[in-house]
Amino acid sequence: MKILSWTMFLLAGAALVVGRARVRAHHADATGRALFDRAMADRRIRVALIVIWWWLGWHFLAGQTL
Description:
Layout: H1 2-26, H2 32-40, H3 43-60
Helix pairs in contact: 1-3
């Protein structure tokens, strides 16, 4: 299971890098906010971000007690 978790973490990071590169390629002079807005216009990127946040929360926050 540990290998699967690390693989998913690396794939999520790669997806973020590729997504950012795709947006940056079309709008080289855009600000960070404009890049984020453009990325959020793509449904696939929105779904990927939701899955990434869920995965991070599940693995790093679930089961933690205060």
